[in-house]
Amino acid sequence: MVKPPWWTSVAPAVASRRCAGAAAHELLWERGELILIDHGDATAEATLGALGGSTPTCLRVARAWHDHRDDPVLITLGRRAGEAGLGLGDPPPPGARTADVEEPTRRDQLLLLFTLPAPLIDRLVLGAADAAAQRWPDPDFRARHGLRLGAALAARVTPALRRLGGELAGPDESLVVHATPAGPGDRTTVLAERSDAGLEVTASIQLDWVSTVWGPGISEPAGRMVLAVRDADGPDRLHVDLAEWHPDGLDHWEAVRVPALLSRSDHDVPWEVAVS
Q1: Which end of the chain is more exposed for a tag (fewer CB within 10 A), N or C?
Q2: What own/partner pairs with CB < 8 Å and gap ≥ 24 does 201-205 have?
């Protein structure tokens, strides 16, 4: 079974950005791609810029997006659970390096991307998370970016794991959660153990959980934690695996996978959960 693309249930996003002169142009994100609605021949405009003309702001954004859509640093700079806003606020003023420099550095381009509205930044971050998950089997990539990606995963999955652990923990019991990315080829595992110190939840989670589960907002539909997306009948019908505690000895539990169907009638309504 082939997993659906990470963007299957992520709604399109449109943002307006001042471009050439005082013109306000639209940027459209859809199905994992950034589209310049008001630049019909972006290649020709980019060529003119390379020949000494002024490159429109939209094309600078598109270039930065293309150059850094796979950059793992985006995953730790992006918004995490519970954070309402993101970005640097207003676009750079005319003449600012992030807007007008013809040979931008990596820092220039990242700063330019983080002047975009939050919905576009969120989708850029999810694309980078998906790219990181695909590169995770590479030992050199893990050695270079493992700590950063582990922190990014833990920041996003810990709230769901804490609520899952709360199903076992007593009202005054200490609850500790540890989450790390699963190794290449390893399955997702979530274990709980009770000791005199309290309840400890230890999870090894597939890295693509960030883009395929957290990103579309399905980490906890109807209070049930989603471990993975298995298939999709479209953006509003997803076949998933839910987590459900099963005893695994005295004071030990393992979260097993329970197949379920998530469905909704529209992007703006909550998901309904039907356990298979």
Answers
A1: N
A2: 201/161, 201/162, 201/164, 201/165, 201/175, 201/176, 201/177, 202/178, 203/157, 203/161, 203/177, 203/178, 203/179, 204/179, 204/180, 205/153, 205/157, 205/179, 205/180, 205/181
